[in-house]
């Protein structure tokens, strides 16, 4: 279930109540008149089954409430109510299969922003990957995969392509175009300093190691990227977000970036280029698979995108 709160001008309150009262998947309807201050108006609240939320939001946006008022959604972890159970049963479909498109746009828009936090995670993940490469530690590489924040912008690009949101695509592309090169340059500098200080024996990388799969580009690299992109987008568009962790540790985006930085310091340009190729293959594969998943799930698309600008906060 999702908790819906609508701030609306008084002249729209009756229509909002009618929309929610007529929706079988909505319950626990509450009306608070005159309590909203900014923007001024009434507040209408209800609990809505996830599978009914997209249609409800479409009807509310048709009243222009996303501009003259506000519409917010929150996840309800526990609801002990017979009325909530009946609403969930009355709503069409299954909650896990439901896509709340406005929620997806908001989530990917936020996770695709280029900011200090995103860059910090990207740099830390790339440095961890470099340590994993130099020490031949697959466990450290897995840690780098989990820390890496790159799936958010990749998912945003897929959503932007399918919903034709150029602003979302450009924001995510900028985050990746800045984040990966910056992280790789800093990682190369850190590798050079570590070697100079005697902390890292980067010459050990020249031998055969268990982490050499990072730069070994092949058909299975593409298969894994496609499967990971599909699983990641399925997780983001449903209530089963736990699968994202498996996505993070199945693709070699961050490890490839870290390996490329270390190889560049060593002058191993072939391995560096192979690693960059691995990185590019994984990025493209994830976006393609995620976009295909969204196209398949497009049958639940209830309305055209209303073109609201992405949040900058």
UniProtKB/TrEMBL annotation:
Please indicate if the UniProt record lists Ribonucleoprotein as a keyword: no
Q: Name the chain's protein.
A: DUF389 domain-containing protein
What is the superkingdom listed in this entry's lineage?
Bacteria
- Any stretches that span the bilayer, and where are they? 114-135, 141-162, 174-193, 213-235, 242-267, 273-296
Q: Please tell me whether the keyword Transmembrane is annotated for this protein.
A: yes
Under PANTHER family, the record lists:
AT15442P-RELATED (PTHR20992)
Q: Name one Pfam family in it.
A: DUF389
Which InterPro entries does this entry report, sorted A to Z? DUF389
Which keywords label this protein? Answer: Membrane, Transmembrane, Transmembrane helix
């Amino acid at each position: 279930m999702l908790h819906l709160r609508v701030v609306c001008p008084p002249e729209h309150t009756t229509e909002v109540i009618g929309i929610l009262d007529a929706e079988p998947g909505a319950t626990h309807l509450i009306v608070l008149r005159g309590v909203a201050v900014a923007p001024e108006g009434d507040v209408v609240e209800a609990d809505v089954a996830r599978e009914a939320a997209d249609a409800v939001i479409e009807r509310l946006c048709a009243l222009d409430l996303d501009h003259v008022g506000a519409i917010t959604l929150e996840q309800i972890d526990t609801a002990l109510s017979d009325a909530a159970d009946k609403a969930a049963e009355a709503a069409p479909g299954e909650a896990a299969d439901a896509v709340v498109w406005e929620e997806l746009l908001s989530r990917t828009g936020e996770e695709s922003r280029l900011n200090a936090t995103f860059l910090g995670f990207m740099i830390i993940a790339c440095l961890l990957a470099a340590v994993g490469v130099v020490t031949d530690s697959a466990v450290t590489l897995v840690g780098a995969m989990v820390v890496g924040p790159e799936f958010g912008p990749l998912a945003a690009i897929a959503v932007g392509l399918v919903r034709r949101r150029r602003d979302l695509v450009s924001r995510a592309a900028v985050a990746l175009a800045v984040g990966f090169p910056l992280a790789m340059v800093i990682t190369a500098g850190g590798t050079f300093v570590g070697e100079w200080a005697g902390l890292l024996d980067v010459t050990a990388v020249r031998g055969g190691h268990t982490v050499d799969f990072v730069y070994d580009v092949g058909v299975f690299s593409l298969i894994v990227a496609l499967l990971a992109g599909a699983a990641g987008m399925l997780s983001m568009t449903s209530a089963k977000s736990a699968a994202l962790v498996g996505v993070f540790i199945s693709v070699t985006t961050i490890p490839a970036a870290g390996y490329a930085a270390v190889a560049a310091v060593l002058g191993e340009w072939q391995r560096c280029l192979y690693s960059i190729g691995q990185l590019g293959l994984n990025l493209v594969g994830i976006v393609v698979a995620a976009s295909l998943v969204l196209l398949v799930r497009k049958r639940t698309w209830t309305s055209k995108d209303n073109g609201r600008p992405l949040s900058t906060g």
